[in-house]
UniProtKB/TrEMBL annotation:
Alphabetical list of Pfam families matching this protein: UBD (PF16455), ubiquitin (PF00240)
Compositionally biased residues, Low complexity: 209-218
The protein's name: Ubiquitin domain-containing protein 2
Biased composition regions of type Pro residues, renumbered to the chain: 194-204
The organism of origin for this protein: Liparis tanakae (Tanaka's snailfish)
Ubiquitin-like domain location: 122-197
Span list, region Disordered: 90-121, 192-232
InterPro entries given in the database record: DC-UbP/UBTD2_N (IPR032752), DC-UbP/UBTD2_N_sf (IPR038169), Ubiquitin-like_dom (IPR000626), Ubiquitin-like_domsf (IPR029071), UBTD1/2 (IPR039869)
Compositional bias segments (type: Gly residues): 107-120
Gene that produces this protein: ubtd2
Length: 232
């Protein structure tokens, strides 16, 4: 199996699996988590799973469940490439690479990027890893980096802590919206990095204050001046 055949087989699975069982947003999250896991970014994969409330009873993505109890099974070829991969010799461009070029404008205006020349303002649906859904005013000529800064201005979320995903693919900052061909009914997932935990304040040691000053000295003097008891 070549790398192109593996990629086509994976795309076929991810595109058809939501039509048979489970929820599409969970499949998208699993696709993003599998991609992060294959890239050895385990922290990002765990953040995606936590944001989508996905549990792994056996500690592997091969079998997992969502918060409603739906079961999701992933084939092995979606989690890691085969060891006997055949090297490709074709020089053709891979059309599945989002960075390779813009979407075909003749494909129709159903997506957010369908009217690339107008640059009109649209509403993009976002789903944060905190579970919140919102809409962001964007233009078809905006890059992902520009949209991150716009989300920062709207919600106060730092752009450096945002990671955007669509259909399981990470979106780089230099991609333009008209290259993604996102339909109006689809959701872009935004994974927010967790801030480092703040260090707890040092424990305070309790000391019992000892009496001092003239009052203490006067009390000591009274005790020392008391006469001893007289024996009969």
């Amino acid at each position: 199996m070549t790398e192109g055949q593996l990629r086509s087989k994976r795309d076929e699975f991810w595109d058809t699996a939501p039509a048979f069982e489970g929820r599409k947003e969970i499949w998208d999250a699993l696709r993003a988590a599998a991609s992060a896991f294959e890239s050895s970014d385990h922290l990002l994969a765990q953040a995606i799973l936590d944001g989508a409330s996905i549990t792994l009873p056996h500690g592997a993505l091969a079998e997992c469940y969502d918060e409603l109890g739906n079961r999701y099974q992933l084939p092995v070829y979606c989690l890691s490439p085969p060891v006997n991969m055949i090297e490709e010799r074709s020089d053709e461009l891979d059309g599945s690479d989002l960075d390779s070029g813009a979407a075909d404008p003749s494909a129709g205006g159903g997506g957010l990027g369908g009217d690339a020349g107008s640059g009109g303002e649209r509403q993009l649906r976002l789903r944060l890893s905190t579970g919140r859904d919102l809409r962001l005013a964007v233009r078809s000529t905006d890059t992902v980096g520009v949209m991150k800064r716009r989300l920062h201005s709207q919600e106060g979320v730092a752009a450096a802590t945002q990671r955007w995903f669509f259909s399981g693919r990470p979106l780089t900052d230099r991609l333009r919206l008209d290259q993604l061909n996102i339909s109006r009914d689809y959701v872009v997932q935004v994974i927010l990095s967790q801030p480092p935990p703040s260090e707890p304040p040092p424990p305070t040691t309790g000391h019992t204050a000892e009496a001092s000053g003239p009052a203490a000295e006067e009390g000591a003097a009274k005790i020392s001046q008391e006469p001893p008891p007289v024996e009969n």
